[in-house]
């Protein structure tokens, strides 16, 4: 009897101890962090001063690196808008999630990380550019631009129908985001906020407050502005994204149609980039851009190809970078809001772009190629109390990794078929856990605008091997250490024969790992035929 009593007392004591302890554990467990995912459209790393301050100062975006981590070797798997977004949301390569290009629809049976976050109790919202052609799943609220959206007076698709807002798109996307944070955030739950800018996408219309400052600037010329594409396969030469040959004076450089006519220039015709402006916005634009037209009219007769190239490059940079000034200011508004509301401490902030962009390197604008400037994407992450401020990471990470990273941050187990790796070990400087030694790339949108041929490839820290296919069968190899500007294709150089072989072996392994194959590539070509996009 006595023994039973002692045992019972002991059990109750033990139960109380465990109950107390588990209560403490629950109480001590940190709240799941909020996640702010900021992404711009076509924002080249060369145009973020945390990476390179030759072109522009972006103090607010830089703050994310200063308070967190700058990834110097982040790349995309398919350098084009909607496919990149599909990779980010699904954690799967394009050939698996099916969104290979901007044209084909996104298969909404794909599981996306916001859906999983919402299921796990996160409040979710998306504002800005998605570019899918269908509404995003897994969001409590969204206000998204249809397709590419407009810089001035944009229309947004929302759950309640369309709405058109007067003003400048970058400011408006931020207003909508702050409005949601102020008025509809559920303070009892963590949130996922996707804040997605349209800028600096073509046709590069800055906000009025930046017209004067940026149109007066002159920018340093990239070393490869006059690249003649020798040593490369036909793909580089036949691409239609050369600033001199393919950038449109009217549409891109904002030369007035009457000036083009008067100078008898044979210019391509695209739609009027200013057509959405109202009369007062147009008047403010004209006040600054009409004098530029006058100067061009006077200068053009004595220009040759090289001076015209430089003029177009400068005009391109003035407008492209002008749009980034507004992105930077607005990122500052959001970061300040998080600080003011004491949210920063428990919020992870990611800044990235849907891909990189050519700012005159190889004579180009646009993206699509696996060459450095469009393959690489900016990636800056701050996570107070976890990431050591002002750290840099040089590992080969990809947008493919974002879904699993965010799921781990939120304590959600990722589906087994996601193909990336969580970046959390890198954020925590737990480097021995990171094993990746090659990344995979595959671009499909051809024949299409800018005529960049289909290609796939792998990159290691030392080399890059690319295979162009479909109406071409050519290979390229770059020695990334000796030739970081990628102007010397050494695929046919006997000195690199061994490297070519070992990179091909590696490529086969990587393609197998990610389940890509020639059969799949042929299937996607058949799809173009079926849709009547090719014969
Ligand atoms: C538009 C642009 C192209 C750009 C694609 C894809 N032309 O079609 O220059 O490559 O978008 O960009 S434009 O005449 O409409 O400006 S993406 O970022 O959406 O993939
Ligand atoms: Ca883009």
Number of discrete helical segments: 17
Ligand roster: 2-deoxy-6-O-sulfo-2-(sulfoamino)-alpha-D-glucopyranose, calcium ion
Strand order of the largest sheet: 7-6-5-4-8-1-9-10-2-11
Helix content: 25-40%
Radius of gyration: 25 Å
Number of strands: 16
Structural class based on helices, strands and sheet pairing: alpha/beta
- Low-confidence residue ranges: 1-28
What proportion of the residues form beta strands (DSSP E)? 5-15%
Average pLDDT: 94
Distance between the termini: 92 Å
Largest sheet: 10 strands, mixed
Shape estimate: globular
Top keywords for this entry?
535 residues, alpha/beta, ten-stranded mixed β-sheet, four-stranded antiparallel β-sheet, 17 helices, 36% helix, disordered N terminus, binds 2-deoxy-6-O-sulfo-2-(sulfoamino)-alpha-D-glucopyranose, binds calcium ion
Describe it.
The strands form 3 sheets. A 10-stranded mixed β-sheet has the order 7-6-5-4-8-1-9-10-2-11, with helices on both faces. A 4-stranded antiparallel β-sheet has the order 13-14-15-16, with helices on one face. Strands 3-12 form a two-stranded parallel sheet. With 535 residues, the protein is of the alpha/beta class. It has helices at residues 2-28, 59-66, 81-90, 94-97, 113-119, 169-183, 211-215, 234-238, 243-246, 257-262, 279-299, 305-340, 372-375, 402-409, 424-427, 497-513, 518-530, and strands spanning 34-40, 69-71, 74-75, 123-129, 141-145, 155-158, 161-164, 191-196, 347-353, 379-382, 391-393, 397-398, 439-443, 455-459, 463-468, 474-479. The longest helix is centred in the middle third of the chain and has 36 residues, at 305-340. It binds 2-deoxy-6-O-sulfo-2-(sulfoamino)-alpha-D-glucopyranose and calcium ion (CA). 2-deoxy-6-O-sulfo-2-(sulfoamino)-alpha-D-glucopyranose binds at residues 41-42, 80-81, 102, 131, 201-203, 270, 366, 449-450.
